[in-house]
Write a structure and sequence with these properties.
Layout: H1 2-16, E1 32-33, H2 49-57, E2 70-77, H3 84-94, E3 99-102, H4 104-109, H5 111-119, E4 123-126, H6 139-157, E5 164-165, E6 171-172, H7 174-182, E7 186-187, H8 205-215, E8 221-225, H9 229-244, E9 248-249, H10 252-262
Parallel strand pairs: 2-3, 2-8, 2-9, 3-4, 5-7
Antiparallel strand pairs: 1-6
Helix pairs in contact: 3-9, 8-9
Length: 264
């Protein structure tokens, strides 16, 4: 009788958690702050072994193929500071794709810029509606933050193709990675960034250029903030010089397609 009962319990557990999957609630919610370790001489950056493990486990991205001189240009757009139009002009002229991770405020207030991003072939990514630290909120609040932004995006553009998430504040846990992956999202972190978001401490285009060129590397996922005047001014020369060095700029969809081909 005991053996039958144990067997029945096992069957119930397997039915609840198919293929050995664990619910997000059962996973660690220890908060991690994303970080990367820049390397010398334009070699690929690294990150903490645990972060590598979690990103691979839940299908995220922080660095592309380090054997190829490919780059993924991404911008965080929490609010508009007057430079995104200029950035879009440069990207259009240079024929470079980018991803813009936006908040609810941005979607509601900057519909013209959102339209340009979509119409000019860029990716609009999810940065949550209110920009909370996801490990600090419940599963219900997390889902509401993500889904409400999707709904605002569909309302603004008519599109339902939002699938990339930049975790607000760069904070995450295994639980949030699992939950957002269950929702169909790719968590996109980064392997290149610098302190560019302080609008009252901009240091000029040359400073931005040097910071970016010093840290660029094959496979880099580049995080820039669109509120930075330095980034807007430096971007044309950054793109031209990186192309001259043999780099190509790829979209996140191209990365995803490459992953699908590799793991077929």
């Amino acid at each position: 009788m005991k053996q039958v009962t144990l067997t029945l319990l096992l069957v119930i557990c397997v039915s609840l958690f198919p293929q050995g999957a664990a619910s997000a609630e059962a996973l660690s919610n220890k908060e991690h702050n994303w970080s990367f370790n820049p390397a010398q001489n334009n070699q690929p950056a690294t990150t903490e072994p645990l972060y590598e493990e979690l990103i691979e486990k839940y299908g995220g991205l922080y660095i592309g193929d380090t054997r190829e001189k490919e780059l993924y240009l991404t911008f965080d757009n929490g609010y508009e500071n007057g430079y995104t139009g200029e950035i879009l002009d440069v990207l259009k002229e240079k024929e470079v794709p980018a991803a813009f991770f936006v908040t609810g405020h941005y979607l509601k207030e900057e519909t013209d810029l959102i339209d340009r991003m979509v119409n000019e072939g860029h990716t609009v990514g999810n940065h949550s509606y209110h920009h909370p630290s996801l490990p600090a909120v419940s599963d219900e609040r997390l889902e509401r933050e993500i889904r409400s932004l999707e709904e605002e995006y569909e309302k603004a553009t008519g599109r339902t193709d939002m699938m990339y998430l930049r975790p607000p504040r760069g904070t995450f846990s295994e639980r949030t990675l699992a939950k957002t992956a269950e929702m169909g999202y790719v968590n996109v972190f980064w392997s290149l960034a610098y302190k560019d978001w302080e609008t009252d401490k901009q240091k000029g285009a040359d400073y931005a250029y040097e910071k970016i060129m010093k840290r660029v590397h094959p496979g880099a996922v580049m995080l820039l903030h669109s509120v930075s005047s330095d980034n807007a001014k430096a971007l044309p020369k950054v793109i031209d010089d990186l192309k001259a060095e043999g780099y190509t700029f790829k979209s996140l969809d191209e990365w995803r397609l490459k992953q699908e081909i590799l793991f077929q």
